[in-house]
Amino acid sequence: MADNKKVSSEELAKIKEFIDSIKFGSVNIIIQDGKIVQIDKSEKIRI
């Protein structure tokens, strides 16, 4: 992986935070030109 395509520690921390904060759902990472440009979290609440 080239230096300009490395995932920053801030990005990894945000991804981990999203994963840790949901019980049911998904985390989607949007990449453009080899860089993370967006991180989405979708959470399902079971009733």
Automatic annotation (TrEMBL):
InterPro entries: DUF2292. It comes from the Bacteria. This is DUF2292 domain-containing protein. It comes from Pseudobutyrivibrio ruminis.
